[in-house]
Write a structure and sequence with these properties.
The chain is mostly helical and 587 residues long. It has 22 helices and two strands. 76% of the residues lie in helices and 1% in strands. A hairpin with a 2-residue loop joins strand 1 and strand 2. The radius of gyration is 29 Å and the shape is globular.
Length: 587
């Protein structure tokens, strides 16, 4: 029996396995375990890196441990996206988890900071696929209208790890030994059972149909991107130490420009096979969404980089306490991401949420810019809550808008691009904002000390015998006697100072941090304008798998076309058969 056009259109969808809500949640368990690995690792290592560096006698090299991980995780993100479109998600996701676990085990055996940096680079190769591939797989399974509801779980994983990481890092790094192994080495070992669990779940339940595509792998583009991105990341991490206009920094700028130019040339030549096809940027949603993701990453990570410093330096919290004090931020992210997911599924409207998120983030940073030494904790927590609500409303809807706008067969590249540019924005934002902080804090501390020196409280502290007997206070007084500001490379001395002497230094820090938050708010205003310019497209009702099979299916036959073709064939043949009664022309 011949299928009609309607049956032909329905055929691709019928070839797909039906995933129930329970099956999707089972798959989610494996995906979230993989994402949790990378999210937890970033926060737990950040908290414990000072203890690790002290034990390995390499405190001055700790920045390279962070940089090595950052370089490989950022660079491999677009490569995972492209390869997963060509060869399938499951093998790439399993590879990413396995490499990450292998790197974690290797980090445990590090005997020097150089070894640790190399093993962290190996970890980063795996981490590059954990975030973007998990979001891509959800795009394959769930239609865009329902997708935001599920992606809220991923945001919850990110938020949970931001709280657990500092707690676990502080606890493990503070233990001399656990089961005969140095405490800080468990910072990496905890990844092993989580990774093995993720591998088992993904291997068992993640069975998605995939049709391999014949295409060239854009290795030249990957190499050119490496040449363009590594110098940018190096300057972002080391620029404050080198100097932004030093010879190494200028060399990085030149190499980065040459690498990016070469990358654009290679991508143009490779066309649709490119690592990041340039035709994508002709689509307004993708082009504006990419830049908006970059800007949001700058404002988001830049603002978040200053928050722990405010809590630890100005408020005197320990790293573990600072992690707990950011709970309002986490609460805002989790609650708003869950709410927006449900409202997007209910209303089918997407654009209002990244717009509202940008407004809330701007408002949150504006509130945080007003905090000072005397600001009660609840005041800073209100700003954190509003900022977190903005993050929860904008992070996933931006990615979802880009996924919804682009062809389903390019789901991996689209999602990886959004992740890549947000990571780049985060790295540049954190570097730029910390540079603003530390380049202005010296002058503001000196100004605050000059102002405070004329006050009765400060003069009373200078004449206090207890102050003169305190070694920490004596060291500060010797520096002040020279007319210079104290060195702020190590702020641990602030905890031992007399509060009257410490107050102007803390005021200077608070003033510089207020400037950082204001700059972050100004940057996010640009992001808000970009989001407002993005066109709103109807959300697809098909999952990525259904849409891809529909895109790849041959067009249905036009009714009556076969009969017309059959009738035309004899006439055509007759026209081509020579008439024997007609004389033939010969040359």
């Amino acid at each position: 029996m011949t299928k009609g056009p309607a049956a032909a259109l329905a055929a691709p969808t019928e070839q797909l396995p039906r995933f129930s809500h329970r099956q999707i949640l089972t798959i989610f368990a494996g995906l979230m375990a993989g994402m949790f690995l990378a999210a937890l690792d970033q926060t737990i290592v950040t908290t414990s890196i000072r203890t690790i560096a002290d034990d390995l006698n390499g405190l001055s090299l700790q920045a390279w441990v962070t940089t090595a991980y950052l370089i490989t995780s950022t660079l491999t993100t677009p490569l995972y996206g492209k390869l997963s479109d060509l060869y399938g998600r499951k093998p790439l996701f399993l590879f990413a988890i396995a490499v990450f676990v292998l790197g974690s085990v290797a980090c445990t055996f590090s005997g020097s900071m150089y070894q640790l940096a190399g093993f962290r680079a190996l970890q980063g190769i795996g981490a590059g696929g954990l975030f973007s591939l998990a979001l891509t797989i959800i795009g394959d399974l769930v239609p865009p209208r329902e997708r935001a509801r599920y992606q809220g779980y991923f945001v919850a994983v990110f938020a949970t790890s931001s709280v657990l990481g500092p707690l676990a890092g502080g606890f493990l790094a503070g233990q001399p030994e656990i089961l005969g192994i140095t405490g800080w080495r468990w910072v990496f070992l905890v990844n092993v059972p989580i990774g093995i669990l993720a591998l088992l779940i993904v291997a068992k339940v993640l069975n998605l149909p995939h049709t391999p595509r014949r295409a060239r792998v854009d290795w030249p583009g990957a190499l050119a991107l490496t040449a363009g991105v590594i110098p940018v990341l190096l300057v972002a991490e080391q620029g404050r130490t080198w100097g932004w206009l030093s010879a190494p920094a200028l060399l990085c700028y030149v190499v980065a420009l040459a690498g990016i130019g070469l990358f654009l040339l290679v991508e143009h030549r490779y066309g649709d096979d490119a690592l990041l096809p340039l035709r994508f940027f002709r689509h307004r949603v993708f082009g504006l969404g990419t830049v908006a993701s970059l800007i949001v990453g700058v404002g988001m990570f830049g603002g978040m980089a200053a928050l722990p410093l405010y809590l630890q330096i100005v408020k005197g919290a320990s790293p573990t306490e600072a992690g707990l004090l950011t709970l309002p931020l986490v609460l805002g992210i989790m609650s708003m991401s869950t709410l927006t997911g449900r409202l997007i599924a209910w209303t089918g409207r997407l654009k209002p949420w990244p717009v509202a998120g940008a407004v809330l983030m701007i408002t949150g940073l504006a509130l945080l810019s007003r905090v000072g030494v005397a600001t009660p904790l609840w005041g800073s927590m209100v700003g954190m809550l509003v900022f977190g609500l903005g993050l929860g409303a904008s992070m996933q809807p931006l990615t979802l808008a880009m996924q919804n706008a682009m062809p389903a067969r390019d789901m991996g590249v689209t999602t990886a691009s959004a992740t890549f540019f947000r990571q780049m924005g985060g790295t540049l934002g954190a570097a730029a904002f910390l540079s603003i902080l530390f380049s202005t804090v010296g002058g503001r501390v000196a100004s605050a000390l000059r102002t405070a020196s004329a006050t009765p409280a400060f003069q009373a502290a200078l004449a206090d015998p207890a102050v003169r007997a305190n070694p920490a206070d004596q060291a500060l007084l010797r520096v002040l006697a020279t007319g210079a500001a104290p060195s702020l490379d190590d702020t641990s001395f602030l905890t031992h100072l007399d509060p009257r002497l410490a107050r102007p230094i803390l005021d200077g820090f608070a003033a510089s941090m207020s400037l950082v938050f204001l700059v972050g708010a100004a940057v996010l205003v640009i992001g808000l304008l970009l989001v407002l310019l993005m066109p709103e497209l109807p959300l697809r009702t098909q999952s990525g798998l259904q849409a891809r099979l529909t895109e790849d299916a041959p067009p249905p036959p036009v009714p009556g076309a076969a009969h017309a073709m059959a009738a035309a064939v004899p006439a055509t043949v007759a026209a081509e058969v020579p008439d024997p009664r007609r004389p033939r022309c010969t040359s």
